[in-house]
Each structure stands twice: as structure tokens, then as C-alpha cells.
Design a protein that fits this description.
CATH architecture: 2-Layer Sandwich
Shape: globular
Order of helices and strands: HHEHEHEHEEEHEEHH
Number of domains: 1
CATH topology: Peptide Methionine Sulfoxide Reductase, Chain A
Helix content: 25-40%
Strand content: 15-25%
Number of helices: 8
Strand order of the largest sheet: 7-6-1-3-2-8
Structural class: alpha+beta
Largest sheet: 6 strands, mixed
Length: about 230
């Protein structure tokens, strides 16, 4: 399955290299401004370190790497949000026949980084929230932009920030990010975890994910960790 996964991503990458437009979309730069306002509403700072956020925005390889490089984030797990445990595996989810999306579960210390700040990185760097049921060269509802909220506070902050960004016309197209209650998160197969750290020269990673890390360091130098 690892070989199938890598070959699949490699094929997608090879096809997208042909189109500079597709590459630009994958990096998110073709549909947004270069900065975003801070969330007007956020969750109050807490001393409880083990808070979590579950975000989906296309291939979890790049999503995981982006959030792993943020100060205050202690752990990021690639996995599948929604759906049932019986079909939470790469082969089934990739068929687009389940109710899962590729997502990451982020464990963070809210005294160092807030939920709203995570959302700002999510919208500005981690993915393009204006693409419906796709992300760059990856097509299918498993690549949808989804915020899975664990409680009403997360839901309210996320909805308020989406409304704020749409009102400010921060993107050239409407945000299509869905809000859904967190009804399950299932860790992906071991070979998907820390994929970019293990495979920095993988063609898909080079074209679609490393530019995100460069953008993260540029946009959030005070929050970036190596």
C-alpha cells in the first residue's frame, strides 16, 4: 500500500508540474491576498496544555508539516476525520466512497498559540479554502476543507473568522470551508506520519508542500520553529 500511495502522489505531481497554474493553486497563492487579519474573536488563553484541533484541507502530508513547525504545537497526527472506524483506511478513503476527509489532529498549548492563530495559519498557508472537494491537484470529497469542532467555543470562533474573512474579501472567491462536529478521528497508517520529514525529496512534496513551509516561515517568523 505504501508503494501505491507514493506512486499515486508521484503521478499527480508529475501531471501538475506541466501546468504552472495548477502549481500556483496548490500553494494557495492564486486565490488569496498575502496577509489575513487576526481573528476578531478567539478562545481565551488557558493553562491547560493538551488542547486539540482537527482541521482538514487536502493531503494531510503538507497539513501535518505546516502545523508541526509552529511554536506551541506539541504533536500533529495525520488521519481521517468523520466516517466510521471500519472504513478509516487509506485505500477506502481514497476511493471517495466513505464519509471521511484527510485531516490532522493538532495538540497545542493555548498559552503559546491560540485556536484562532491556528485557524489563521490554516487559512493563509496550510491550504486554499476556496476550493470545493479538492485541493490543488487532488480531487475528491476526501480532500475537502473542513473544520471539525470539538465544542461550541471552537465552532463560534471558526464561524466568526470565516464570516470576518468573507466580509473583508480576503480571498478572490468565497470560502467553502465546512464546519462539522467532531464525530471521530482515526490516525492514518504509520507510513503517512511525518511523511515530509522522512521523504523531503518526494516529487509531490517538493512541488506542493515545501513551498507551504517556506510561506509559513515568511508569514509567521515569530511562530515558526525548525
Amino acid at each position: 500500500m505504501l508503494i501505491r500511495s507514493i506512486l499515486s502522489r508521484w503521478l499527480i505531481c508529475s501531471l501538475s508540474v506541466i501546468s504552472l497554474t495548477t502549481v500556483a493553486l496548490a500553494a494557495g497563492g492564486a486565490s488569496r491576498t498575502t496577509t489575513l487579519p487576526n481573528p476578531a474573536i478567539d478562545i481565551a488563553t488557558s493553562t491547560a496544555k493538551g488542547q486539540t484541533a482537527v482541521l482538514a484541507g487536502g493531503c494531510f502530508w503538507g497539513m501535518e508539516a505546516v502545523f508541526e513547525h509552529l511554536k506551541g504545537v506539541s504533536d500533529v497526527v495525520s488521519g481521517y476525520s468523520g466516517g466510521s472506524a471500519t472504513t478509516a483506511n487509506y485505500e477506502m478513503v481514497s476511493s471517495a466512497q466513505t464519509d471521511h476527509v484527510e485531516a490532522v489532529k493538532i495538540t497545542y498549548d493555548p498559552s503559546q498559540i491560540s485556536y484562532g492563530q491556528l485557524l489563521k495559519v490554516y487559512f493563509l498557508v496550510a491550504h486554499d479554502p476556496t476550493q470545493l472537494h479538492r485541493q490543488g491537484p487532488d480531487w475528491g470529497k476526501q480532500y475537502s476543507s473542513v473544520i471539525s469542532f470539538a465544542n461550541n467555543e471552537q465552532k463560534q470562533v471558526a464561524q466568526a473568522y470565516i464570516d470576518q474573512l468573507n466580509k473583508a474579501q480576503s480571498f478572490r472567491k468565497p470560502i467553502v470551508t465546512q464546519l462539522a462536529p467532531l464525530n471521530g478521528f482515526y490516525a492514518a497508517e504509520e507510513y503517512h506520519q511525518q511523511f515530509i520529514e522522512r521523504n523531503p525529496a518526494h516529487p509531490y512534496v517538493v512541488v506542493h508542500d515545501l513551498p507551504k513551509l517556506a510561506q509559513l516561515q515568511k508569514q509567521f517568523p515569530d511562530m515558526y520553529k525548525k
